[in-house]
Amino acid sequence: MTYEQKLSIKETVPFLREHGTQLTGYFYERMFSHNPELKNIFNMGNQANGKQKNALASTVLAYAEHIETPEVLTEVLKSIGNKHVSLNIAPEQYDIVGYHLLSSIKEVLKEKATSSIIEAWAQAYHELAAIMISIEEKMFQKNAEKKGGWKGWRTFVIANIVEESNTVKSFYLVPKDGGAIAEYLPGQYISVKMFVPSLGHEQPRQYSLSSTYMPSHYRISVKKEKGNAKTPDGLVSNCLHEKKIGDEVLVSVPAGSFFANILPEDSLVLISGGVGLTPLMSILETCKALNNKNKVIWIHGCKNEELHAFKSKVANLEHNNDWLTSFVFYEDGLTENSSVKKGRVDLSVLKDKILINKAKYYICGPEPFIKVHYHSLITFGASKESIFYEEFGPQLLQIKE
Ligand SMILES: Cc1cc2nc3c(=O)[nH]c(=O)nc-3n(C[C@H](O)[C@H](O)[C@H](O)COP(=O)(O)OP(=O)(O)OC[C@H]3O[C@@H](n4cnc5c(N)ncnc54)[C@H](O)[C@@H]3O)c2cc1C
Ligand code: HEM
């Protein structure tokens, strides 16, 4: 980009700060009305709740703010790349997105969209797309070359279904072609795609792999999202809960930038809220499989015992292994003891148990849950490099102290 073009991009920063989501909201509406086939690959729940337009707006703004040094965004772009690769986004689709993004800039900025601003954004998008396509191409290639790896959607058969709580079911998925399946790091996810009759088109969703890697199958554990007076039932989780053994689903190769690379000397503190325990179950089971006897503190919060998924699995593991200590918080709890607490997860009551020299902290749960526990850990003196977190949605959370 030329010096003048970078100046033109910077000129749009105040607008993007203030009206970025108006622009991205307009962009998605425009794109889906011209290219309705894309509804098959976007999560229409995240369109309805506005999370995806927020995620795109914050990325476009960050790119404009760092137009001189786009390399500072590499980690963010890799995380987006993981999601794109998991959804099999193709390079030629960047032209469609680029076309609608530029048209939206023209139509939303109106007279402020001078020809120099439009030219500058055309060049900026072109360069960003080239960086992203190159990151994603490498990921696609690596995944396809892995033993058991593949590109695109692969048909898996549901080989077993296990109820882990009143609302969470585990699905054991085996490839229909009988071939090998790619290894993954504990914490990573797969995308699962299926036809949703109420929408009349397909929908993908991400599900964390909830066990340690097994060469024979993938296990995912899915919460049935019930609606209420104001919100509808979740589309895909309810369809999945109706599936039977022998039914088929489409699956993409494991991906994701939230994972634990467990070293023999690591101590791990695993903090989950609700169904956020799934990637942490994979980390826990991987500790067991590695047999390094890493010290692990397991902290889980949920509403009550009926909704406590993997309760007996974790209890058995703790009973048989000195390296594991678990604590659970029940919001509707009636009794308390040394490992069962009443109320929401409160790390301050466990401070002396979790402040371990060089421990790594993994948090998974809803956004407010992550924020509260991240800040508690920082207040206790944990370094921000030692804290890893994931929320189950577009990655909006960039915690700044
Ligand atoms: C990396 C990652 C890992 C994940 N891992 C897991 C996992 O291991 N287990 C798991 O259960 N989930 C996991 N999820 C979440 C999962 O992908 C789905 O988001 C979840 O199953 C809900 O999907 P759904 O189709 O049932 O609900 P959706 O139809 O997508 O709806 C989601 C929510 O939005 C509400 N909603 C929808 N439309 C509207 C509207 N118009 N107005 C207001 N509210 C609305 C619904 O009521 C519902 O509560 C993960 C997500 C990510 C990104
Ligand atoms: C420069 C161009 C692009 C940018 C800046 C961008 C940005 C993003 C961001 C920030 C997310 C959220 C990531 C997350 O969930 O953590 C995302 C997700 C996604 N992107 Fe892109 N993207 C681009 C191009 C594309 C293209 C070309 C397609 C294909 C049509 C695409 C399809 C998707 C889909 C389907 C998701 C998941 C949406 C969801 O789960 O709700 N993106 N993108």
Automatic annotation (TrEMBL):
User: What CDD domains does the annotation carry?
Assistant: FHP_Ae-globin-like, flavohem_like_fad_nad_binding
Family matches, as PROSITE patterns: FAD_FR, GLOBIN
Q: What Pfam families does the record tag this protein with? A: FAD_binding_6 (PF00970), Globin (PF00042), NAD_binding_1 (PF00175)
Boundaries of each FAD-binding FR-type domain copy?
151-261
Look up keyword Iron and say if it applies.
yes
Cofactor dependence = heme b
Give the source's domain of life in one word.
Bacteria
Molecular function in Gene Ontology: nitric oxide dioxygenase NAD(P)H activity
EC number of this enzyme: 1.14.12.17
Q: Which UniProt keywords apply?
A: Dioxygenase, Heme, Iron, Metal-binding, NAD, NADP, Oxidoreductase, Oxygen transport, Transport
User: InterPro entries of this UniProt entry?
Assistant: Cbr1-like_FAD-bd_dom, FAD-bd_FR_type, Flavoprot_Pyr_Nucl_cyt_Rdtase, FNR_nucleotide-bd, Globin, Globin-like_sf, Globin/Proto, OxRdtase_FAD/NAD-bd
Q: Where is the Globin domain?
A: 1-137
Listed under catalytic activity are: 2 nitric oxide + NADH + 2 O2 = 2 nitrate + NAD(+) + H(+); 2 nitric oxide + NADPH + 2 O2 = 2 nitrate + NADP(+) + H(+)
Q: Which family does it belong to?
A: In the C-terminal section; belongs to the flavoprotein pyridine nucleotide cytochrome reductase family.
Name of the protein this chain belongs to: nitric oxide dioxygenase
The protein's organism comes out as Chryseobacterium lathyri
